[in-house]
Design brief:
elongated; 8-stranded parallel β-barrel; metal ion binding; 3-dehydroshikimate dehydratase; 9-stranded mixed β-sheet; alpha/beta; binds 3,4-dihydroxybenzoic acid; binds magnesium ion; 620 residues; TIM Barrel; Xyl_isomerase-like_TIM-brl; Glyas_Bleomycin-R_OHBP_Dase; 2,3-Dihydroxybiphenyl 1,2-Dioxygenase, domain 1; 37% helix; single chain
Length: 620
């Protein structure tokens, strides 16, 4: 796949945009006219910069409001276009994008549009240029790629072709099968974007909420597969208008953009039943362990929480100051080594989660896929007799280990031979239900793509949760059998719990860990008796759920006594309670699911309110 990106996607001065695109591995860049106009360099110098970076100028855009105009606008548009051809000569591209006419003055006269496009083709040919005609979803008379194609086909001029843009097609639910009618020699260029499902007018949706393929809700792989079936082998170019991307780092967006196209290319060939270009998406089978970095002092605090939650310190690492805590299938590891990655993590963030180990079926293939997606491998010195676990760089400098699921028992036995206490025989907590990570809102889509492209995991719709101090956005990534689930949280509100976490923690990371039980009441009672600092829920909540769900008084009493939150949907029931946070950073949740697949979003606001009441005033 020949990969290109529109300059409008990236933040900063044009020179930086070009540098970022080249570094990330793009072959070309579409130059947006506004980027050119605002640049300190002239078009020739920009072309030279692009050549030096090994980038092709894939298109110049946009040109607006030409076909079907009355006079005198018509002649003026043609004269304007001739001026653009001179700029294109300097830039070194022969292709200009013509948007379908949005002007109220545009005439609904098909023959006139055909004549205009034909004459434009002649003019372009004389200048050695080509016109790519794109139907904008809000075009006045042409707003559907099928109509744009029928004009291009009937104009039948070698210098007039079609530009497809997945946004305009998919925002209008135009079936991708219609692409099969397009002749590949007349398809000059393809632009790609994904988007979240929203109900708003197409123009605002397009200009503010486009996202990278794989970050939204649309079948972009099917769209690309349909294009490839026509025989098209030209550029695939990202064109993402997004307010957050404009405010973020160009280098990160370029890396993510390139990753999204690699992912998309592989998905598209799979849609067509052709040879995949990447190893399969990684099948994660379990959250095998969570590693906490902690000073001796904070290790003691974590240990108290773990004990109160029913965990047992079962073994010590054979050479390091690392303890394995266990309950059911859950493994927590506390690492207090005075050097190495965990120590560095602890120095930066304080006691917190420094690594997560996911069980995978084939770590080598997983690492190969990660590499192809430009995901950084984690490397640290490993002693000759130490178990070398593959890993990639995760959120906030943490590590995501990829543990060979078939060998995990052997790994634990070999690495942790020094037996400590015996684990109880009837664990109340059985497995890790989900891990909640909090990040800057500007990083949210980047991490969503990271999980979604590397792992065989799907994403849920994004939810907005009311924190007493501002909105929190939350979205889950999870595998099909739900053995691995992450919830991602971000916020723009300065004082929301998410934002306070990021400030307090100096970056993104694990904010809470949810543990599954088969008996929430027993788990709550046991934790209370063991002195786990619990998050207390106010009395009004219980009045509300009694009324909302018509709960039995006895059940209600048990929920109230355990500070347990309750939810119910068409499928089933959900029970959850929370600990307070260790060192104001990470907290724990215990959940019981009865045929329930979500995360109790309705209760999140209640939990956030309860947590906000423990908030320290900002001046402290
Ligand atoms: O929003 C716009 O005007 C606009 C401009 C150029 C494009 O390629 C496009 O898809 C949209
Ligand atoms: Mg476009």
């Amino acid at each position: 796949m020949k990969t290109s990106i529109a300059s409008v996607c990236l933040s900063g001065p044009l020179a930086d945009k070009l540098q970022s695109a080249a570094n990330a591995g793009f072959g070309g860049v579409e130059i947006f006219e506004n980027d050119l106009i605002g640049a300190p360099q002239d078009a020739k110098a920009i072309a030279q910069m692009m050549r030096d970076l090994g980038l092709e100028c894939t298109m110049f855009q946009p040109f607006r409001d030409l076909e079907g105009m009355p006079e005198p606008q018509r002649s003026a548009a043609f004269a304007r276009m001739e001026r653009k051809f001179e700029i294109m000569d300097a830039l070194g591209t022969d292709l200009v994008l013509l948007c379908s006419n949005c002007s109220p003055a545009a005439l609904p006269d098909r023959q006139r549009m055909l004549d205009d496009l034909g004459e434009l083709g002649e003019l372009a040919a004389r200048h050695g240029k080509r016109i790519g005609y794109e139907a904008l979803a809000w075009g006045r008379h042409v707003n559907d790629h099928r109509d744009a194609w029928s004009l291009v086909r009937d104009v039948d001029h070698p210098s007039v072709g079609l530009v497809l843009d997945s946004f305009h097609s998919l925002a209008r639910d135009i079936p991708s099968s219609s692409i099969g009618d397009i002749r590949s020699d007349k398809l000059f260029f393809v632009q790609l974007a994904d988007a979240p499902r929203l109900s708003m007018d197409a123009l605002s949706w397009s200009r503010h909420f486009r996202v990278l393929p794989g970050q939204g809700d649309w079948p972009v792989a099917e769209y690309v597969a349909a294009i490839q079936r026509t025989g098209y082998d030209g550029w695939f170019s990202l064109e993402i208008f997004n307010d957050q991307f404009r405010a973020g780092a160009a280098s990160q967006l370029a890396v993510d953009g390139h990753r999204s196209l690699r992912f998309l290319e592989d998905e598209a060939v799979r849609v067509s039943g052709r040879q995949p270009v990447l190893p399969d998406r990684v099948a994660a089978t379990s959250t095998e362990f969570i590693e906490f970095a902690a000073s001796d002092e904070e290790a003691e605090e974590f240990a108290q929480y773990f004990r109160a939650l029913g965990f047992t310190p079962v073994a010590k690492h054979r050479s390091k100051d690392v303890t394995r805590w266990k309950q059911g299938e859950i493994n927590f590891v506390i690492n207090s080594e005075p050097d190495g990655h965990a120590h560095s993590h602890e120095v930066v963030h304080g006691g917190s989660v420094c690594a997560i180990g996911l069980g995978v079926t084939d770590p080598d293939a997983a690492m190969e896929r990660a590499k192809a997606l430009g995901i950084q491998r984690f490397e640290q010195a490993v002693a000759p007799d130490e178990w070398d676990i593959a890993g990639v760089r995760g959120m906030g400098g943490s590590v995501l280990y990829l543990v060979d699921a078939a060998k995990s028992e052997a790994m634990w036995a070999e690495e942790f031979p020094h037996q400590q206490e015996e684990e109880g025989t009837a664990p109340l907590l059985t497995r890790i239900d989900h891990v909640a990570q909090t990040m800057q809102q500007g990083e949210f889509l980047s991490w969503l793509l990271f999980y979604h492209s590397l792992f065989d995991m799907d994403t849920t719709a994004q939810l907005e949760i009311a924190d007493p101090m501002g909105l929190i956005y939350s979205q889950a990534v999870q595998n099909a059998d739900r053995s691995v689930r992450f919830t991602l949280n971000g916020s723009l509100a300065h004082q929301s719990l998410s934002s306070r976490f990021i400030r307090n923690y100096f970056g993104a990371g694990v904010q809470h860990i949810a543990l599954a039980t088969d008996d929430i009441f027993k788990a709550a009672q046991s934790a209370t008796e063991a002195g786990l600092p619990l998050l207390e829920i106010g009395p009004n909540y219980y009045d509300d759920i009694e009324a909302r769900f018509g709960l039995e008084p006895k059940l209600l009493e048990r929920l109230r006594a355990g500070n347990i939150l309750y939810d119910r949907d068409e499928q089933g029931e959900y029970f959850q309670f929370y600990s307070r946070a260790v060192a104001k950073r990470v907290f724990f949740e215990v959940v019981q699911r009865r045929d329930y697949d979500a995360f109790g979003a309705a209760n999140a606001a209640i939990r956030l309110s309860a947590q906000a009441s423990h908030r320290e005033p900002e001046w402290m």
